[in-house]
Amino acid sequence: MIRHGEGIYGNAVGVTTPLEHRLAQAGQVVKTGVNTIRPGLFWDGSATVVSGTASMAYSVRAFTAALSRGATDGAVFLANDGAVTVTTTAAPGSNSRIDIIYVWQRDYAADGTNSDPVIGVVQGTAAASPTAPSLAAFPGAVELGRATVSAGATATNGAGVTISQTAPFTAMAGGIVAARTATERDGYVPASADLTAKCWVIADGITYRWSGAAWRAWESDWFSATPLVTAQSGSFVSVNASLRWKYSAGVVVYLISITVGSAGTASGNITVAMPFTAAFTAAAGGMNQSTGTSIWGVIFSGESVLRINSYNNSGAIGTGNLLQASGIALV
Questions:
Q1: The pLDDT value given to residue 306
Q2: Which residue of 13, 186, 199, 235 is most buried, as measured by CB atoms within 10 A?
Q3: Where are the alpha helices (DSSP H) in 214-264?
Q4: Which residue has the higher pLDDT, 257 or 172?
Q5: How many folded domains does the chain comprise?
Q6: Does 80 share its domain with 149?
Q7: Measured between alpha carbons, how far is 274 from 161 in angstroms, rounded to an integer?
Q8: Same domain, yes or no: 182 and 234
Q9: For residue 330, which of 282, 269, 273, 271 has the smallest C-alpha distance?
Q10: Do 35 and 145 fall into the same domain?
Q11: DSSP state of 29
């Protein structure tokens, strides 16, 4: 049904309700389905949300977030404007347990207690192989972190307590969602038809674009690497190589430099193992010598391997000659 817009006031029928306000707010956040937002924290430059303290308590840093109880309940924008200390219980007498630190927005209309926001912790049951406790009692809560607490621990920043950062990140509609790892990225599944969705993985520095079924590497800054280089045949060997590469609009742009270590003829070839997976095509890119007159070309051999081969079998390659190649490859 059509709902009242935000800021509408009038007679009893014309007043915007809190639910209608939340439903309208949902339009501003990235989606995983129709009217279904991706709940989480808004990226502010730090992947660490929960830290240990010198006691049995956790410290939760300032953040802003969007929470949701589902498609029919809209979105709640919430802020924590300073560090909050959350006390947990004493460590178990034996084995270990898992604590989950969370943020939750109570709703008096739904929960019947009050409408206070909560940053809390729920403890799991101690066991030799502990399992994480459920947040089902806190509908719409977002997990900020989880800690494994071993027997005998007396402080959450010391031995016996391991804290994992698990807070999901979200973004405004059309924005880029941050993820710590590829595993976190894969946990974000946009609506299948949303081909504009993007996710930046902190671990590899690459922005991925949603294909409708999977994440595809899309954009990045330049990377530098020293690729594995082998002389396949011929009488020369290469001893030094450098590679610069980046993702640009879904393709890899690369620049390779190889210094020949000993003199030989141009009848051999060199294989360069690339640090990215790509679908190369024959004769894409170019090759040249810094000295001499030989003409060189590029032939690709399988995924992640670039083969450099001479187009001129009569040219001589001198010691110290610099071979350079550049081109693009599909990923």
A1: 65
A2: 199
A3: none
A4: 172
A5: 3
A6: yes
A7: 40
A8: no
A9: 282
A10: yes
A11: B
In this prediction, what percent of the chain has a pLDDT beyond 70?
A: 79
**Across 238-254, average pLDDT:** 86
Query: How far apart, in whole angstroms, are the C-alpha atoms of residue 73 and residue 20?
Result: 8
Are 34 and 27 in contact by the 8 Å Cβ rule? The answer is no
Contact, 81 vs 107, CB < 8 A? Answer: no
What backbone phi and psi angles, to 5 degrees, belong to 111?
Answer: -100, -20
User: Do 47 and 41 meet the contact criterion of CB atoms below 8 Å apart?
Assistant: no
Q: Tell whether 280 and 300 lie within a shared domain.
A: yes
Which pLDDT score, from 0 to 100, does residue 12 have? 63
Residue linked to tokens 């949603």? 210
Separation of alpha carbons 215 and 209, rounded Å: 6
CA distance 237 to 267: 12
256 plus 150 within the same structural domain: no
- Assign 134 a pLDDT band (cuts: 50, 70, 90): very high
The residue length of the chain stands at 331
In a domain, 130, yes or no: yes
**Residue 303 sits in the same domain as residue 277:** yes
- Shared domain for 45 and 150, answered yes or no, is yes
Which residue, 206, 133, 208, 197, is CA-closest to 170? 197
pTM of the model: 0.85
Identify whether 14 is part of a domain. Answer: no
The boundaries of the domain holding residue 303 are 223-330
> Taking residues 266-293, what's their average pLDDT?
56
C-alpha closest to that of 288 among 323, 314, 264: 323
Q: Could you give the C-alpha distances from 318 to 34, 232, 322, in angstroms and in order?
A: 64, 18, 9
For residue 15, being part of any structural domain is answered with no
Out of 168, 202, 234, pick the residue that ends a domain.
168
Confidence of residue 301 (pLDDT cuts 50, 70, 90): very low
> From CA 284, how far away is CA 297, in angstroms rounded?
9
Q: Is there a domain that residue 12 lies in?
A: no
pLDDT grade, residue 263 (50/70/90)? low
User: Please, what is the Cα angle at 250 between 246 and 251, to 5 degrees?
Assistant: 55
Does residue 316 carry a pLDDT above 90? Answer: no
Helix (H) or strand (E) holding 199: strand 198-201
End-to-end CA distance of the chain: 44
